[in-house]
Amino acid sequence: MAICPLCNSLKTLEVNCPKCHTTLEDSGKVSDYLDPYGHYNDEETVKMGDGYPNTAKDQICPHLMVCKSCGYDEVRFIKEE
Fold it and tell me: Domain range holding 47?
């Protein structure tokens, strides 16, 4: 089973905000914001309800990236390894 390199602190992602060019902060998996007890479920169950139809099949992990300066946010899909 593949794992997300960001969730497991194996890699970092450096992306700049398109509005103010400040570095975006990784705020974790999108699924963590959908269900407060979601982290107790296995990954396959979480991926079935995360709102993205291909996360399990494509082995990607959606992460919320947030700009602390201007409030911009976006979802980045991280390839699991």
Answer: 15-79
Distance from C-alpha of 42 to C-alpha of 39, rounded to nearest angstrom: 8
Using alpha carbons, select from 43, 46, 44 the residue that is nearest to residue 31: 46
Does residue 43 belong to any structural domain of this protein?
yes
Whole-number Å distance between alpha carbons of 49 and 7: 18
3 lies in some domain: no
Report pTM: 0.84
The closest of 53, 67, 69, 75 to 6, measured between CA atoms, is 75
pLDDT, tens only, 25-60: 999 999 888 877 766 777 777 777 778 888 989 999
